[in-house]
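Q: I'm writing up a methods section and want to include an example of the input and output format. Could you take the sequence below and give the corresponding predicted structure tokens, formatted cleanly so I can copy it straight into the document?
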Amino acid sequence: MVPAPAHSQGRDTGVMRLTVFWQRMADHFGAGYADTFARDHVMTELGGRTVREALDAGWEAKDVWRVVCATMNIPHENR
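A: Here is the clean output for your methods example:
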């Protein structure tokens, strides 16, 4: 199986690196609050998990980011 290319701005490649995910979290929530949100905010859309729990459970970063965007009403231009 050939790995999918890394996520690039403006193009849906199907994969998001964790570094990109955490940068987007920091960009949206602020560097200090992104980790707190990821650790403490339980979302039913993630199966009653936090962001960190979902990632640890094997959810793809891109899927978690989509849930965060939808749940927190992040504008499309910032996704």
